[in-house]
Amino acid sequence: MGVEVAQSRSSVPQVTLDFLRGFAALYVVINHTRGAFFVGGRELLATGSSVAHYLIVALLQLTALGAEFVVLFFVISGFSMAHSILHSTNIGSFYLKRLLRIWPSYLAATAFAFFVGKLIGAEDIQKNVVLVAFYLHAETTVTPQFWSLPYEVFFYLLCPFILATRKTVVSALFLAIALCIATVAAFGLVLNPAPNFFFNFFGNELAFLACGAVAYHYLDRIPKLKARPYWLLVTLLLAGAWLAKSLTNHINILSSAAMVCVAIISIRSFPDWLARTRWLNLGFFSYSIYLFNYAILLVAAWLCKLWLGIDPHTITNPIAWMAIVPLLLVGCYLGYLLTERPSSLALNRIRQLQRQGRPVALRT
Q1: CA–centroid distance for 134 within its chain
Q2: Cβ(44)–Cβ(318) under 8 Å?
Q3: Using CA atoms in the order 297, 300, 304, 307, what is the torsion angle rounded to 10 degrees?
Q4: Most CB contacts within 10 A, which of 223, 224, 231, 344?
């Protein structure tokens, strides 16, 4: 491992990857919050089809690509893991760093979700909390966003073998595309069509992750766009993703492919000045945003019913949900301080020791 020289991720500023992760996590929060604290576009139009109502519903379509932005996470993860593999001294070191990076925060988020489930009476998280903790039954009514995490974890397990060299990365992508085409031929365009985890991983998700890894190795061959053509192309791709999803009423291969293109183009051409705007860059705690946001949202909805006597799903004000988003981010930031930040500090210590050639000793 680490013997092949590839296009270094250093040519992509780390702040760019962080910004893209942070924006994707924020978008998922917005998508969840709008869905929980608003009656919905169709219901709003049923109460009165004025021009203002149609305009509002049209604007709310900008928040409709929550699952597609998870695909952006997959692409960035594949890109980052290609870098990590080529700069890891051995397989054990890679696995240790991945374990320390993701599992402590995930366990804390799972525990928090368990207590929220107790609070609101969600039985599935209470019955399956141990399975959730080990990624075996991650998606529950309190943790629906966890659906993507087992795919990422399984990808991490495979990384030392499928991302070891540029040749194996390209081979993995061709295999993933072939399996994806076979899946589409058998089940249609819908994403993750089977109840079987491994079928969905090899038939769909691996293609997105492998695209990111290949983009890392061939980054210099991806055109670097100026600001105007970049924003125009991204806008057209997002519009295409929305159209593909609207036609099928579900995330699908076409909408996901459009988001893969958005991710790769953005990795290469996202404006540096915007990524370096610190108050806009939430990437440093994007993982905590993703882990904690939905359980905190359910607590907010429960309090809304308890204190105000309002069912959030009946709110017809189309912008009221926006007031909840900052509160969720504050809650996620607290989760970051308590869980993700200590893990990141320990991980940085390991990296420093490895650079110095010293044995790794974790403090207890």
Answers
A1: 19
A2: yes
A3: 160
A4: 344
